[in-house]
Specification:
Elements lengths: L16 H20 L4 H4 L10 H20 L26 H19 L23 H27 L5
Helix pairs in contact: 1-5, 3-4, 3-5
Pfam family, one: MST
InterPro entries: DinB/YfiT-like (IPR034660), MST-like (IPR007061)
Protein name: DinB family protein
């Protein structure tokens, strides 16, 4: 399922834990992209909040959330840049002036697809591997915990983006 295809909330008849978690994760991935669609580049790069994050930086942040939790965390892949959305000097989310909105969107979509590939055959009870985001002696979370954690992060950030979008151009809704 692609982000564009999953615009509808999972059906209320869905009772499988795996399908429910993955369905809602795709739902929020798509909601994020819908809320960004149609925003001019200037608005994507302008903060409306005291904390200073921009809508485009939020998209980049969630691409790196996917990378950190699924590739580096769960699959224990050795990935070069797991905190790439943070400015080295401030640790705040940032987008470089030469990074286009399309480039950040592609990064996000690529990371989402990699995440889907990682979880497709994994059991919800499988623990995160050692050697990436978690050491061998650390308590490593199960996939079900990671999915729920990432899902709640999306829900929180998409809600924040609702407000930012309304402040930007008055758009509300899905």
């Amino acid at each position: 399922m692609t982000d564009e295809q999953s615009a509808a909330e999972p059906p209320p008849t869905l009772t499988g834990t795996r399908e429910l978690l993955l369905g809602y994760l795709d739902y929020y991935r798509a909601a994020l992209l819908r809320k960004l669609d149609g925003m001019p580049d200037g608005d994507l790069r302008t903060s409306r909040l005291p904390s200073g994050w921009t809508p485009l930086a939020l998209l980049k942040h969630l691409a790196y959330v996917e990378r950190r939790w699924f590739r580096w965390g769960f699959a224990a892949e050795q990935v070069d840049d797991v905190w790439g959305e943070q400015a080295p000097a401030t640790q705040r989310w940032h987008v470089l002036p030469d990074e286009s909105a399309d480039e950040i969107r592609r990064l996000f979509l690529d990371e989402c697809e990699r995440s889907r590939t990682i979880v497709v055959d994994a059991d919800l009870r499988d623990q995160a591997g050692a050697g990436g985001g978690f050491g061998a002696s650390e308590q490593r979370p199960a996939l079900i915990w990671i999915l729920f954690h990432v899902l709640q992060e999306y829900a929180r950030h998409v809600g924040q983006l609702d407000i930012v979008r309304e402040l930007s151009d008055g758009a509300t809704g899905e």
